[in-house]
Amino acid sequence: MRIANVNGRAHLLSGPGAIDIARASGGRFGPDPMDLFAHWDAFRTWAHTDGVHSSAPYRREDLGAPVPRPGQVFAIGLNYAEHAAETGLEAGPGMPSVFTKFTSSLTGPTGTVQLTGPSVDWEVELVVAIGKEAYDVAAADVWEHVAGVMVGQDFSDRDVQMSGTPPQFSLGKSYPGFGPTGPALVSLDEIAPDIPLRLRCWVNDELVQDGSTDQMIMPVPVLIERISSVCTLYPGDLVFTGTPAGVGMGRTPARYLAPGDEVRTSIDGIGEMAHILR
């Protein structure tokens, strides 16, 4: 199933149309996309067994962040070896490098994003949404705790990110609009967890990133095993899982986004997003 946020209401996408979940369920599940996570198992059963419902057309620009207000957002740095190398930073073998994108940065899969300076960079990422509370979960059991996956873009103001001693990541990655996700939350019955997914990012018509999830240093089950050994992950929490090589700061000379640039972010089998920088 593919769950979308259409004008602030939770919908199931069905071909070219969308089914309003609250109306189709007779109010059993609320209209707020976050309501689904409080009853995730029951919702998933209903979505797969309750039969056919009428759908209505929607516009791409009507889509918001599928998970608009997660309680926690975990973001992973340096999870692809070639990306770590291009930034001149080292990826360690132990705990992942974890920071956050504050929830005020989250936005939907289309629209405009305001540049905050001359060093705003791009990072395509697979984003995982938690469906079942997870604490100290073994890697072999992680997928049982996952609601689904989305396309993510981790816009980053590198000047802010690298300021301070030592540098801190979270603020430079958390300006308004710096955390697009979407276009829908795709459940694991549509995306086989063990099949690699191709991630790509374009700036205007130039392909700047082209990687695969099988290049992760720590695959999703290992990431969540290690995060959950410290933190409890709750239904609706998000994990941005890292970016492959090809970011602007890794180029010689460095290249960053300018007003009018369009950034397209795509993961095969999940969907594509597009944003204009202002």
TrEMBL record:
Pfam families: FAA_hydrolase (PF01557)
One example of a Gene Ontology biological process annotation: small molecule metabolic process
Keyword hit for Hydrolase: yes
SUPFAM superfamilies, per the entry: FAH
Coiled coil: none
Keyword Metal-binding: yes
Ranges for domain Fumarylacetoacetase-like C-terminal: 73-275
UniProt KW keywords: Hydrolase, Metal-binding
GO MF, one example: hydrolase activity
Family, per entry: Belongs to the FAH family.
Protein name per UniProt: Fumarylacetoacetate hydrolase
Species of the source: Streptomyces brasiliensis
